[in-house]
Amino acid sequence: MSKVILAGYNVDAEVLADIVKSAEGDWDLTPETLSAAYARISRDARPVDELRQIARADVAKTRRQNERIVFGLGHHSVAEHAVFNFDLINISRLAIEYLESHRLASYTEKSQRYIRLDSDFLIPEEWQQAGLKDELKDFILYCFERYEVVLEKLKSNGIDEKLAGEDARYMLPLAAFGQLGMTLNARSLEYMILRLAASPLKESREIASKLLDAARPIAPSLLRYMDPTPYHTERFEDTHNTLNQLMSHHPAPDPVPAPVPAPYEVALLDFTTDGDSRILAALAQHFIGGSFSKVQDWIDAIGNEGRLQLFNAITRKMSIHDAVPREFEHGIMTFEVIMSAAAFAQFKRHRMTSITWNPYDPDLGLTVPKAITDAGLQDELLLINNKATKLANKMGMKHPATPYVWTNAHRRRVLITLNLREMYHMSRLREDESAQWDIRQLVGQMSELARQVFPICAGFLGGKDQFPK
């Protein structure tokens, strides 16, 4: 008969500290014992719960075993059994972008949509060293002042306070403070610290140091390789220099963009050309057997009516809480999207997609909420943009710390590659009536393009509220 034992679960660190203080004897509470016990499963026939007891009995020995297995033998997945929770308080929206670009972690972030924001912000050390501390501080305080003015004006126009807040935040810069809770395993933490330590932002490097200081005393045997190598610190400069050499012989395209339709631009660059038949063939192959190419030929032969019949059989009993089958991952799309910082803050959370992005670019214009335009307040954003651009020019447009002055309304180009299964997840969440208007409209355009190239298998794209239809 099978046996299931709960081996552990997250407990607040302050509770653990109180337990250690009140307990008799020496207690060394560390997730390393779980990693060590599970590492022995493959070569030790004793029950797992007994292996955990052995690991807890001698933590020093357990740590030596971890170091030998993880770093000596290279079994790094063992470190994934040790899990950490972090509170990250008073870090800038810009640094949160760097932090949350790491996909193998869980984040819950303070929402600028639902919370009325106070004037809490960062003055980065880079701006202090450039002698622009006071100018940056005055600009940020001005942004918060106009945020309050716009918020109250929108509310006086009859707009709900939550909706007014989510539009007024387009006035705020990326230097504004946020906070989040983060959960990740030791292997992911090690890699995150390495990447943050190689960041061009001083703030990100400081976060790396603080994460290490907090976690290393708890699990020293699982955190070792976190010093950036030349690959991490010099790759960007090497690439930039090579591109400059190439452009001296082959001029690059004009970087000044053509006029961008408001509020964004969505282009489908590439897709699986036979996506519908490929997905349906992958589903049918399980039942028919034989080679995939032969099954796909059969799917093509049954015609559009047959393919629709098969799709309907697959989805007939699907509820809003059911994910489409994994076979939908065989349909791939690549989009280029121009989106606001406000939309990107939500979009970057879809970490199972492949997302790369360009710097924020003032030449792409601003995303101005309709409520702000209707209230005649768009000049407030334009004035903030003018002030931000002047400051950016003083700091240097390409300086790594310049983006602190850009606001939630500023835009960037984002390249996204994802499969149709992930598109379904994104569409259900971001096209729902409860979603914020900016990302709802953006993802709606992506879904419309997906339906054009996968007319059968993308047929159920849409928000949760649209599913019954």
Order of helices and strands: HHHHEHEHHHEHHHEHHHEHEHHEHH
Beta-strand percentage? Answer: 5-15%
- How far the N terminus sits from the C terminus, by CA atoms, comes to 45 Å
Model regions low in confidence, pLDDT < 50 over at least 5 residues: none
Structural class: alpha+beta
**Percentage of residues assigned to helices:** 40-55%
Give the overall silhouette.
globular
Strand order of the largest sheet: 4-5-7-6
Secondary structure tally: strands: 7
Which radius of gyration do the C-alpha atoms yield? Answer: 26 Å
Largest sheet data? 4 strands, antiparallel
Total helices: the number is 19
Indicate the mean pLDDT: 90
Report on this model:
With 469 residues, the protein is an alpha+beta fold. Among the domains are: 13-81, no CATH class; 273-328, no CATH class. Helix content is 49%, strand content 11%. It has helices spanning 13-22, 32-39, 48-57, 59-72, 93-100, 125-129, 133-156, 161-168, 186-197, 202-215, 230-249, 275-288, 292-301, 303-315, 341-347, 370-374, 378-395, 420-430, 437-453; strands at 83-92, 106-109, 177-185, 265-271, 332-340, 354-357, 411-419. A 4-stranded antiparallel beta sheet has the order 4-5-7-6. Helix 2 (32-39) crosses helix 3 (48-57), helix 7 packs antiparallel against helix 8 (161-168) and helix 9 (186-197) runs antiparallel to helix 10. The longest helix has 24 residues, at 133-156. The chain is globular and about 70 Å long. It starts with 12 loop residues before the first helix and ends in a 16-residue tail after the last helix. The mean pLDDT is 90.
